[in-house]
């Protein structure tokens, strides 16, 4: 049975908490069906602080210092940018075992406008010391993300979308996964946009990698880029539902530059500006030029057929 990507993650946290009474789940009045089950069955491992995200981070700090494995949950702009100083000065400075779960990646909350858009959070969180960032793309990958952040004792940030996505994985996934084999050209994407990127890759007959971890970029992604950049891959295209500044395209660009790789990079992302439109997510993608059709047209116009495998 198909499951919401958000519930898939929380169901895995539920299973973890059932075995480890040291797990604490703290929310700022954010809800989900699977969270209600957690609250009912594990009341001593659950805290709802109300609408006070900054205080929630401070409570999580205290719990982590007391030896708890802490998960905090709210909508992305409120749990990241509103709490930024507290995350930096408390969780990251002491390298605490706290996982920040943000709901509403990219334009998930498209009808709620710019206060709820999460298109700058990757850039903001990527500069935090020791912060690992995960962005699952279907109902299977959140399970792996949950296990990885649980087994890791350093700060982590998981961007959770909402809704039921097409299946990419059947039995687990790694931090970076080849969805479509490639030679000269490969698209690197993450989360919701991996499905858009798959449409583009199939139309242009090129490769696709889904990067479930986006900071730091996965070691196996580095190896794929490094190995294939000499005599094989000539073009990387990054596709993301994030600002052009600071996202996965920026991370890949830094890697290519730092290692002086002979490879071209094309970044497809949202312009670096504020967006004020309200509407359906797919409509916004058309308006902002990141729908599959718009991306295909743009790549054919700007790159041509030379880099298509």
What's the arrangement of secondary structure elements?
Elements: H1 5-19, E1 23-27, H2 33-41, E2 46-48, H3 53-65, E3 69-75, H4 76-79, H5 84-92, E4 98-103, H6 121-126, E5 132-134, H7 141-151, E6 156-160, E7 176-180, E8 185-189, H8 193-204, E9 207-211, E10 213-215, H9 219-228, E11 235-243, H10 248-258, E12 264-270, H11 281-288, H12 292-302
Parallel strand pairs: 1-2, 1-3, 3-4, 4-6, 5-6, 8-9, 8-11, 11-12
Antiparallel strand pairs: 5-10, 7-9
Helix pairs in contact: 1-2, 1-7, 3-5, 8-12
Short summary:
The protein is α/β, with parallel strands linked by helices and 309 residues long.
Overview of the structural elements:
The protein is of the alpha/beta class. The protein folds into two domains: 156 residues, Rossmann fold (3-Layer(aba) Sandwich); 127 residues, Rossmann fold. Helix content is 39%, strand content 20%. It has twelve helices and twelve strands. The strands form two sheets. A seven-stranded mixed β-sheet has the order 2-1-3-4-6-5-10, with helices on both faces. The longest helix is centred in the N-terminal third of the chain and has 15 residues. It starts with a helix and ends in a 7-residue tail after the last helix.
User: What is the ordering of alpha helices and beta strands?
Assistant: HEHEHEHHEHEHEEEHEEHEHEHH
CATH class descriptor of the largest domain: Alpha Beta
Question: Share of helix among residues?
Answer: 25-40%
According to CATH, the fold-level topology of the largest domain is: Rossmann fold
Calculate the terminal CA-CA distance, rounded to whole Å: 36 Å
Cα-atom Rg, whole angstroms? 19 Å
- How many E strands? 12
Average pLDDT taken over every residue: 92
Shape label: globular
Q: What is the CATH architecture descriptor of the largest domain?
A: 3-Layer(aba) Sandwich
The main sheet comes to: 7 strands, mixed
Strand order of the largest sheet: 2-1-3-4-6-5-10
- β-sheet strand percentage: 15-25%
């Amino acid at each position: 049975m198909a499951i919401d990507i958000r519930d898939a993650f929380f169901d895995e946290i539920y299973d973890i908490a059932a075995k480890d009474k040291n797990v604490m789940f703290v929310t700022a009045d954010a809800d989900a069906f699977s969270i209600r089950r957690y609250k009912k069955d594990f009341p001593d491992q659950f805290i709802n602080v109300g609408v006070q995200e900054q205080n929630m981070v401070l409570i999580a700090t205290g719990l982590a210092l007391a030896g708890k494995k802490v998960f905090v949950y709210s909508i992305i702009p409120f749990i990241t940018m509103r709490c930024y100083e507290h995350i930096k000065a408390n969780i990251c400075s002491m390298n605490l075992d706290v996982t920040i779960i943000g709901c509403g990646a990219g334009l998930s909350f498209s009808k709620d406008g710019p206060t709820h858009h999460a298109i700058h959070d990757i850039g903001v969180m990527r500069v935090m010391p020791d912060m690992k960032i995960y962005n699952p793309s279907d109902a299977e990958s959140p399970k792996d993300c949950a296990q990885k952040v649980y087994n890791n004792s350093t700060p982590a940030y998981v961007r959770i979308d909402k809704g039921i996505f097409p299946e990419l994985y059947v039995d687990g996934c790694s931090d970076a996964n080849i969805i479509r084999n490639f030679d000269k050209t490969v698209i690197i994407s993450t989360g919701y946009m991996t499905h858009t990127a798959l449409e583009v890759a199939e139309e242009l007959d090129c490769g696709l990698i889904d990067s479930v971890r986006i900071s730091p970029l996965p070691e196996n992604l580095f190896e794929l880029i490094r190995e294939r950049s000499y005599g094989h891959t000539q073009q990387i295209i990054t596709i993301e539902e994030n600002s052009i500044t600071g996202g996965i395209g920026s991370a890949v660009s830094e890697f290519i530059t730092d290692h002086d790789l002979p490879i071209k990079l094309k970044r497809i992302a949202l312009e670096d500006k504020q967006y004020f439109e309200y509407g359906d997510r797919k409509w916004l993608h058309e308006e902002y030029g990141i729908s599959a059709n718009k991306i295909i047209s743009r790549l054919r116009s700007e790159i041509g057929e030379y880099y298509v495998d």
